[in-house]
Design goal:
This protein is mainly α and 450 residues long. It has three domains: 3-133, Alpha Horseshoe (MgtE N-terminal fold); 147-255, Roll (CBS-domain), CATH 3.10.580; 278-448, Orthogonal Bundle (Tetracycline Repressor, domain 2), CATH 1.10.357. Helices cover 66% and strands 6% of the residues. The protein has 22 helices and six strands. The strands form two sheets. Strands 1-2-3 form a three-stranded mixed β-sheet. Strands 4-5-6 form a three-stranded mixed β-sheet. Helix 14 links the parallel strand 4 and strand 5. Helix 1 (3-19) packs across helix 3 and helix 19 (321-344) runs parallel beside helix 21. The longest helix has 31 residues, at 385-415. 35% of the residues are buried.
C-alpha cells in the first residue's frame, strides 16, 4: 500500500477503536504515528472522536499536535475538552499562536482564558491583540533574542545561550541601541566565526524590517522573497517589538493563497481541512456566490430576449452562443488570474493600470485574431462564409474586451481596497456573458443585414 492507503487504514482503525470505547487500542495506534500523522488523523475524525483521541496524547505531544492544527479546528477541539485541559493548552501556546486562536473563540471564552494566564503572558498577549487585524503585529512573535551594538561577540553568545529554550529563533539576531531602536542584524554563523572580543557594531549588517502595522501578507511575502530566516518587526519609531520567522511567513502565505484560490473559483475559503468541514459550512461557502452568478445570468437571458427576432431569422446563430460566451469568459478569467497573481507578487500595482490595459488589449486582440481565423475557416466550411465572418469578428471583439476588462478589474479592486480575487473569475464570467452576446448579435446584424 502507498502512504495514502496506510493513512486511511490507520484512520479507520482508530475510528473503530474509539467507537468501540477501546481506548487502549486507540492509544496504541496513535502512539506509532508522528505529529504530522496524528494531525492528519484528527482532521479526518468527527468532532467527538477528535476530542476523545486528543485526550489520549501525552501532554508534551498534545501541545505539538495542537499547534499544527488550523485555528478554527483548535477552537472546535477546545470545546470538547475539560476546562483545566483548555487552560493548560492555552498557556503553553506561543503568544502569536495564542492570539490567532483567540480570534476564532467566542468573546466570553477568550476573556476567561485571558484571565487564567500568568500576568506576564497576559500582558504580552494583550499587546499583540492591540494591533490591527491582518497586520503583521498580530502574527509576529515577541520571543526573540536582541543584542546591543556595544556587546562583544563573547557577551552576545552568552546572551544567546541563556535564551535558547524560550526564543522563537536564534539564527537571526536583531541589534539595538540603548533606546531599543533597531540598528542592525547579525546571524548566528557570523557570531560563531568572529573573534570573541569583536564588538557587534563592527560585524552587524543592515537589517530588513517591517512596521508592526504593515499588512501581514505583504510582510510575509517580503520575508519569503528576500529568503530571510526571520523578518524583524519594529514600531513607528523603529524600536524592536517582534520577529516573523520564515515558517510563520509561509503559513500566512499559504492561507492567503487558499483564500485567493477559493474566491477565484467562486467560493468562500473554508479555513480548515476539507474532510473536517461540516456539510453546512460547505453549503454556506458556495451558496452566496451561486446566487450572485444566477442573478448575473439573468442578464444573459434578457440579452437573448432582446435579440430574439435576430435568432428567429438566422437559427444557426443560436448554435454558437455557448462557444461565444465560453471563449469570452475563459479569456477574461485568464487575464484576471494572471494580474491577480502579479498583484500578490508585487509585480504590478494599481498605478500600472494603464500599462496593464494596453498590454492585455494587445494580448486579447492577438488571441482573438488567432481564434477568430480558425473559427472563420471551420464555420465557412460547414455553413457559409457570412456566418464564418460573424463568428470570426465576434471572437476578435470579445477576446479583446474580455482580456482588457479581466486585466483591469483586479487593479480596480486593489485601488478601492477590495479583494482582487473577488473581482476575478465569477464577476468576469457574468460580465462577459452579457456583453459578449450583445457584441455577437450586433455583429450578426451588421454582417448579415438582418
Amino acid at each position: 500500500m502507498d502512504e495514502a492507503d496506510v493513512r486511511a487504514a490507520t484512520t479507520r482503525l482508530i475510528e473503530k477503536a474509539v467507537e468501540a470505547d477501546d481506548l487502549q487500542a486507540a492509544h496504541d495506534a496513535v502512539a506509532e504515528l508522528s505529529v504530522e500523522q496524528v494531525v492528519d488523523v484528527l482532521e479526518r475524525l468527527g468532532r467527538t472522536d477528535r476530542a476523545v483521541l486528543y485526550r489520549l496524547l501525552p501532554k508534551d505531544r498534545a501541545i505539538d499536535v495542537f499547534e499544527q492544527l488550523d485555528p478554527s479546528m483548535q477552537s472546535e477541539l477546545l470545546r470538547g475538552l475539560r476546562d483545566d485541559q483548555v487552560a493548560a493548552i492555552f498557556a503553553d501556546l506561543e503568544p502569536d499562536d495564542r492570539v490567532e486562536l483567540l480570534d476564532e473563540l467566542p468573546a466570553t471564552v477568550a476573556s476567561t482564558l485571558m484571565r487564567g494566564l500568568p500576568p506576564a503572558d497576559r500582558e504580552v498577549t494583550a499587546t499583540i491583540l492591540g494591533y490591527p487585524q491582518r497586520s503583521i503585529g498580530r502574527r509576529m512573535s515577541p520571543a526573540f533574542v536582541s543584542l546591543r551594538q556595544d556587546m562583544t561577540v563573547e557577551q552576545a553568545m552568552d546572551a544567546v545561550r541563556r535564551r535558547l529554550d524560550d526564543a522563537e529563533t536564534v539564527y537571526t539576531l536583531p541589534v539595538v541601541d540603548d533606546g531599543r531602536v533597531l540598528v542592525g542584524v547579525v546571524g548566528l554563523r557570523e557570531l560563531m566565526t568572529a573573534a570573541p572580543g569583536t564588538v557587534l557594531a563592527e560585524i552587524m549588517n543592515e537589517p530588513y524590517w517591517a512596521r508592526v502595522t504593515d499588512d501581514a501578507e505583504e510582510s510575509a511575502r517580503r520575508c519569503a522573497e528576500l529568503k530571510l530566516l526571520a523578518l524583524i518587526v519594529v514600531d513607528s519609531e523603529t524600536r524592536l517589538v517582534g520577529i516573523l520567522t520564515v515558517d510563520d511567513a509561509l503559513r500566512i502565505l499559504e492561507a492567503a493563497d487558499s483564500e485567493d484560490q477559493a474566491r477565484i473559483g467562486g467560493t468562500e475559503p473554508l479555513r480548515r481541512p476539507y474532510l473536517a468541514t461540516p456539510v453546512g459550512q460547505l453549503v454556506r461557502s458556495r451558496v452566496v456566490w451561486l446566487l450572485f452568478l444566477a442573478l448575473g445570468a439573468t442578464l444573459t437571458v434578457q440579452v437573448l430576449e432582446v435579440f430574439e427576432s435576430t435568432l428567429d431569422q438566422v437559427v444557426t446563430l443560436a448554435l454558437f452562443v455557448p462557444l461565444i460566451i465560453g471563449t469570452g469568459g475563459n479569456t477574461g478569467n485568464q487575464a484576471a488570474t494572471t494580474v491577480t497573481r502579479a498583484l500578490a507578487l508585487d509585480d504590478v500595482t494599481p498605478r500600472d493600470i494603464g500599462g496593464v490595459i494596453a498590454r492585455e488589449l494587445r494580448v486579447g486582440l492577438s488571441l482573438g485574431v488567432l481564434l477568430g481565423s480558425v473559427a472563420f475557416v471551420l464555420t465557412s466550411l460547414v455553413y457559409d462564409s457570412s456566418v464564418g465572418a460573424v463568428i470570426g469578428l465576434t471572437l476578435v471583439s470579445i477576446c479583446t474586451l474580455a482580456a482588457t476588462v479581466g486585466g483591469a478589474m483586479p487593479l480596480v479592486a486593489k485601488s478601492i481596497r477590495a479583494d482582487p480575487a473577488v473581482f476575478s473569475n465569477p464577476f468576469i464570467t457574468t460580465f462577459v456573458d452579457a456583453t459578449g452576446l450583445v457584441i455577437y448579435f450586433l455583429v450578426a446584424k451588421a454582417v448579415l443585414g438582418i
